Structure formats: structure tokens, C-alpha cells
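Record pair follows.
FIRST:
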Amino acid sequence: MEKKRVLFVSQEITPYLSETELSSKCRALPQGIMEMGKDIRIFMPKYGCINERRNQLHEVIRLSGMNMILDNLDYPLIIKVASLQPVRMQVYFIENEDYFPKKTFMQEIDGEEFDFHDERTIFFCRGVLETVRKLGWAPDVVHCHGWMSALVPMYLKKAFADDPIFDNTKVVYSVYEQESEYEINDDMARKALLNGVEEEDVKLISSASVGALHKLGIQYADAIIMGSEGVDEDLNKFIVDSGKYVLSHHDNEACIEPYNNLYDELLEEVDVYS
């Protein structure tokens, strides 16, 4: 039997960034799921602060020459890859120096906050899906972690709904406690529009914020995972009111089996109705 495929989309993964609840979960989880017998791929942004030489990143030549039009401007989409040792687990990086400038993470070098979190989020989410499509690697489950991945569920259900690569793909969205409230431009909803995406589909981010992005991710996901023990009260109410299946919080050591079981349950639904 062919292995089931799980695509992990995360805004942070250690050791490429400092250890946080999110980054450490996204290091441990894919390895655990791979060891449970599934085929995996991992994507994250190539922030400018990530040391390419130390982490042995290199460009994926067969994916070179990709571009993306965002807000009527054409941007190069560069894909790099590194291998997490000793398990030889590949991590793909979405790179563009306009959106992920050298030596930076979430702020300018002088400490000023970026004023383009909206566009870099759109670029990252679309970039992941366009890259997966070009790889020809059809995921059975896409598991998103962090607000910078929050557009992926919506794009999968709308812009990529008829793409055979994503046929019957199930989407899981993990919600984490917000460590910072970044400024998101209110123009984000317009910029996020794409063929298949209407204004009504993105109205939750018409007044954009990190919380609004989480809500959009929840709206289009098939299941929700509580990545943190506690989340914002308003966000928690939105999760409850959504009526979606919710998996409670598990720490890194205890999360592998329940997460893997959730993926299997979602895929059993596909098998029943397909």
C-alpha cells in the first residue's frame, strides 16, 4: 500500500530559528509522523536570519525560474532545501529577498516592524502550494502551523479546489498562543484575491490582524488542533462556535500518536465518500 502523504506548513522550525513552542513542535512532529510510516514534506519561510552555510541550504535547481504576481508586481520565487540530521528529513524554504530581507526575522535590522506582513504571508502560502504543484507531490493531509500559514486552508478550498494535485486533500490547522501582535495591513483581503477566491471568501481579514488570520485558517480547515494549552478567549470562542472537530493540546512527546490518528480518521472519510 502506498504511504499516505502529509505536508507540514510552518512559520517556524527549530534549529533554523530559536526554540519556541511552535518551532519545537514543528521539528518533532514531522519526524514522529514519518516514523509512523507516512511520507512527509515540510515547508517554512527562508527568513534572512537563517544561516545558509551553517544549515547547508541549497537551491532546488529543478524548481528554478518560478515567479509570482502579487498586487500587480512580479516576484521571483526561489526554493531552497536542507536536510535535518541525523534523520535526513528534508525542509523546503520559500525565499524572496523583498519579503524576507537579509539578517531579519519579523523586524527590520533597526528594530522597526515590517509593514508588509500581509504580502509576505500571501507570498509564503501561495508559494508553498505552487511549489508542491510543480513537484507533482499530492498530499493527503496538509497541516498548517502559525498565522503565516493561515491562508493555505482557504487557498486549498477555493483557488486550488479543482487542482488534481490537491484532490480530496484534508486540512488541519494548529492554533498557538499569540506571543506577539504584529501589524497586518487592512488591504490584505484585496491582495489575497486570486482566481477562485472572492471577496466574501476573505471577509474575515477585511480588518486584518493575527487573530483574524487564525480565524480564517479555522474557517477553512477540516479539523483544528490546540497547539497551546491556552489561546485568546475570543479565538477560543470562534473555535467552539465553528463546530469543527477539535483535538486538545498535547506536548511534543505525547502528540505523535493522537495527531497521526487524526490524520487517519480524516482520510477514512475520504475513502468512504470517494
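SECOND:
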Amino acid sequence: MKKYLVIGNPIEHSLSPKLHNYWFKKYNIKNSFYEKKKIEEKDLPIIFDQIKKGELEGVNITLPFKKSVLSLLDFLEIPAKETQSVNTIFKKDGKVIGTNTDWAGFHDSLKKFYLPTLKNLDEKNIFILGAGGVSASIIYSLKKLGGNIFVTNRTKKNAEDLKKLFPNINIITWGKKPPKCDVVINTTSIGLNKNDKVDLDFNDYNKDELFYDLIYNPIETNFLKEARLRGNQTTNGKMMFLNQAAYAFYHWTGQLPEINNEVIRFLDLWLELEF
């Protein structure tokens, strides 16, 4: 049995096992199973030992470990190296390799589903909340799509570290915001709990902005609910989640799943049950 894993803390919200096990069945990939595991940082060497021994075929990394795993890897593919963030691990020729499919997942979700309504993204102001591993992936993706990027984070040092990777971004003190933005993206974990609220007031913004929350479970965070009630366009991280997962699945199996209405309905069903 080939075993796959997603690790993080918290991890209860993750629907990765449902999705990947669905794809194993759909594409007739036998003797493969995917599950989730809540770990502490001290557990990471144990996970890597299991990968090296062949006890784990592949691993997905979610918050807060996307940077913590860097020193444990034998090799980083280019997106992981340039973002210093890893969400997918596999073994090849005896080496444990880290890559980043988050950037491609976000890129595809924005380009295929939302970019037509935004137009001329390179002329837009984009405000990112958070400076963790996934924030680097979003910025890396936006470099290819365009946009003037502003970043804020509760811990300013993390934002400053992000600027070392991407010198052209603008850092804003947490609690403040640009006078005008076209896209606002929440990359923080604020919203995983139903009572979480982003302590920023966007009432002075227009109704033309897109508010994008990378969280997909719950379906609508307070960040998105408040934006919707103001009349803004909103989206959660469902399509990014599906696309990044498809690329991870491809790294492990050589099969790139199709993101179609069937798999979207499948995920929606589980999200409704969770919600």
C-alpha cells in the first residue's frame, strides 16, 4: 500500500484526503491511500525518515510548516527555491525533493476564473494579508500575472523577510491599508475558526474590489461575508485548493486530474457537510 499524507497544525479543516482518495479511485490507481495528520515541528524529522524509508510515498505540507521543512530536503525545485516555501514532497532517485504547487494553483484559479473580470492586472493594486509560506507563493504567481503588490503582517519581521525575496513589494504596518486596492487577498489563518475576524475596516473601499480568501473550509469566512455584504465580489480558496492538489497528484502519480464540474461538485458536497 502506497501511503500519502498531509501534515499541518491545525489540520482538521483539510479535505485533501477526500480529494486525493477520490482521484485514486477515479483514475484506477490501486493500493494508494491518503490521510491527514496533525503534528508538531519536532515531529518533522520523523516524517522525513518515513519518506526516506519508503513508508510514505508523498507528503503535502500546510501551515505552519511550509518553511520549516526546507532544511530537511535534499533538493528544491525552482518554485520552492524562489518562494522558500514547500507544499509538496516526493522522492526521486533516492533524494527527497520539495516543490511548490501553491503558486500554480493560485495562478490557474485567478487566470481561469477571475482574471477576465479584473482585466489589466498589471495596473491593479493588490493587498495581501499575511507573510507566511503561502504568501510567497501568491506573490510569485502575481509576478507572472502583474500587479502592484502591498503586504501587511502582524509580525513585521516576516513581512520584511518576504521583501528580501521580492524587493518590489510594498510593506504596510498591520492595521493600516493602501488608500485604494483592486484585489484583497487573505493568506492568514484568520477565519479557520468561525468567530475569527480580520481587524481591518474596508468600508471606505469601493464595491469593485475582489476579496479572495485562501481558506476554503469554512466556505465563507467572516472576511468574505463582510465583503459580500458590502457588495464586493468574493471568492474562497476552493479553486486554488483543487488546482494545487492536481499538480501535487501529478508529481506523485504522473496523472494530472482534470478540474471539471464533477470534481467541483464532489468537493462542494463535502464542504456543505463540513459546514
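COMMENT: The chain has a mean pLDDT of 94.
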